[in-house]
Every structure is written in structure tokens, then in C-alpha cells.
Recover the amino acids of this structure.
């Protein structure tokens, strides 16, 4: 045997080789896979609130009566992130089925409420409403909520408002059943 290679040296060399083999062997192993699918666009929808019927006794002068407005909601499930606006329009009031019987100078004013995320909607970018009230005109729809691009996605609830609708009854209105229809419309921006 060579004087440089003894049995003890051979054992050390074999031991080092074994340790080296473990040092380069992987301690963990990972594999990957992809989860894929298709998300189809849903709809942009809204609900309209219930409005509590009111009563008033004609007095010969203009008077304002208030009534409760129920909860309503809007859902943007389009996945477009385009935003939208919610408008409300009111038809000309009638009394006993006739616009002429409603008198002159009547109007409706709606109190706006602030949106909260519906159960299961985790986003915090709600559609915005400005504080206060909006007068509803029969010729133009009034904006009551607006979601800029990238906001308002998912389902949103607008709470009920006690005395949320003010109705001006003109002094020259006729007696009978009062009626005006409020239409809530949700639409994506044009262009």
C-alpha cells in the first residue's frame, strides 16, 4: 500500500464521498399545476325601493308631506370595471288619474342614502352619493349614485330612509288618489 493511502484514509475518503452525496441531494421537492377557468360577465342591475303611501288634507295652500322610502340596491356583475350611474326619474303627478287635477307647482324631493357592501361583497370601493336631497323633475332623470371606473363592482345596498321622499301638494290640487311613478335606472357610462 502506498504510504499516502492507508486504510484509515480510505475510510475517511469513503465517508466524505457519502456525506457529499447527501449534501447535493435535494431536501424537498416541489411540483406545480395551474388552476384555470372562465369568468363570464354578469349583468348591471338594480332594484327600486318601496314607497310608503301618504295622506294629506288639502288646505288651499302649498304643503309638503313626507313618506318613507324603502331599501334598494344595485349590482355590477359585469366584470368590466367601467363604472355606472344610478338615476331616478318621476312621472308627472296625477290626482284621480288626471294630471290637471294635481294642481301646479308640485314636486318630489328624494333624500339620498349611502351604499354599503352587500353580504358577500368584500370590496370597499362603493358607488358614491352626495349628501342631501335631489329634486325629481319630470323632464330629466336625476343622478342619485355614481360609480367611477374601477369602483362600485359587486352588490351594494342602499338603506331605507324614514321621511326620505318629500311631496309638495299644491294649494290648487284636487282631492283624490295621488300618483307619481319613480323609475330607478342603472346604466354604464356612454362612450
Amino acid at each position: 500500500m502506498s504510504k499516502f493511502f492507508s486504510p484509515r484514509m480510505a475510510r475517511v475518503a469513503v465517508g466524505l464521498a457519502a456525506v457529499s452525496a447527501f449534501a447535493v441531494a435535494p431536501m424537498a421537492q416541489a411540483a406545480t399545476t395551474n388552476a384555470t377557468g372562465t369568468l363570464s360577465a354578469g349583468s348591471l342591475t338594480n332594484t327600486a325601493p318601496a314607497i310608503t303611501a301618504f295622506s294629506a288634507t288639502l288646505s288651499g295652500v302649498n304643503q309638503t308631506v313626507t313618506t318613507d322610502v324603502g331599501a334598494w340596491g344595485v349590482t355590477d356583475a359585469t366584470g368590466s370595471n367601467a363604472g355606472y350611474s344610478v338615476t331616478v326619474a318621476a312621472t308627472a303627478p296625477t290626482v284621480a288619474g288626471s294630471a290637471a287635477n294635481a294642481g301646479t307647482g308640485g314636486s318630489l324631493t328624494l333624500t339620498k342614502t349611502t351604499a354599503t357592501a352587500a353580504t358577500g361583497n368584500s370590496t370597499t370601493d362603493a358607488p358614491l352619493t352626495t349628501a342631501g336631497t335631489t329634486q325629481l323633475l319630470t323632464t330629466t332623470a336625476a343622478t342619485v349614485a355614481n360609480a367611477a371606473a374601477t369602483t362600485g363592482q359587486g352588490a351594494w345596498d342602499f338603506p331605507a330612509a324614514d321621511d326620505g321622499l318629500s311631496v309638495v301638494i299644491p294649494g290648487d290640487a284636487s282631492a283624490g288618489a295621488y300618483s307619481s311613478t319613480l323609475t330607478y335606472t342603472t346604466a354604464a357610462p356612454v362612450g
